[in-house]
């Protein structure tokens, strides 16, 4: 009993917080003070017009951009750039897909797994590509794929690597309805497992969640 | 133990990935090598067939040309990754960034410095260098070209996303490579004169040790700034 009590329950404690966080980009203050707290299984949607700071906010949350003021906290600990405790839990998908056009979809995913310190088997990679309807393109070069299909490959990375926190920037851009529905299934499964997600989007997502509206 | 294994794995993964990428775009790699071959062949044409003079100039000229040829490939070290967003994924990897940068530099050397080094004994024949001296020159390139990749990576990281970055990169990196050029060419000249080249190679080795220590850290800091 004593041992069980001493081991902290990871799922219950995980929490991402922004505390009086300011975001500036290129010397211009975009957001003065952002406060929120996200717990296991919760989704936060970022809505707002172009240039309102959605992307910059996401880059601050994953530590690529230092906050202008305030801080990001993970499990009540402030997050610094390159934090080895925080980074393994984060999956970030930016504007660009982060996949190499000269390699195949499967090669890209295998490398993503290796970079995260994991090994991915061919069957796993195929299953993840299948989840986004891209199983047929596993071994063709990404160069031959359309913009929306590349986005699907990038989203398959989320299915491959189990990260607690998803930070997604316009995940639906360029996707057709079928792919959007597949992403929806992926996101709901992630939230059910106790994952968290912060998603900047123009199309409202179906899972229930809070909405943070940013104004330009 | 697992930390060491993760480090080793991520290093191997990046080297394998980058060499594969270079192979898929081998046109760029071969273009750099072709530049090296052509430029090295131009000097004998311009200077004339006087054997003694050519042989005297050979180590310096081959070294300068190798330096310029390695500049050509530097700008592609991080630029593709910067453009397609995979640099962000690299920065967000839980492994130490400097270590991952070192892996990228290693892959860059394998696809730029190593082929230059292998070509040099062949090209030295145009200058009438004896085989043993040409091998000595190649040895100096083996110790020297990794330093060029290491210093170049710092420049490539600092000029990432800057307009006209390629020229700025050369202006930034070439002066820093001067010591390598001096010791490298001196090692080649010593080899050609049949003298021991231990001193020059030791100095090149010292340059390599110092840049191995400092350059990945500096390049990693540069990449973090570029990603902001």
Q: Which features does this protein show?
A:
heterodimer, A: alpha/beta, Rossmann fold, 4-stranded antiparallel sheet, 7 helices, disordered N terminus, B: 228 residues, mainly alpha, 11 helices, globular
Report on this model:
The complex is a heterodimer of chains A (216) and B (228). In chain A, helix 4 packs across helix 5, helix 4 packs parallel to helix 6 and helix 5 crosses helix 6. Chain A is built from seven helices and nine strands; from the N terminus they run H-H-E-E-E-H-E-E-E-H-H-H-E-H-E-E. In chain A, 32% of the residues lie in helices and 25% in strands. Chain B has one domain. Chain B has eleven helices and no strands. In chain B, helix 3 packs antiparallel against helix 7, helix 3 packs parallel to helix 8 and helix 3 runs antiparallel to helix 10. The longest helix of chain B is centred in the last third of the chain and has 30 residues. At the A-B interface, helix 4 of A face helix 1, helix 4 and helix 5 of B.
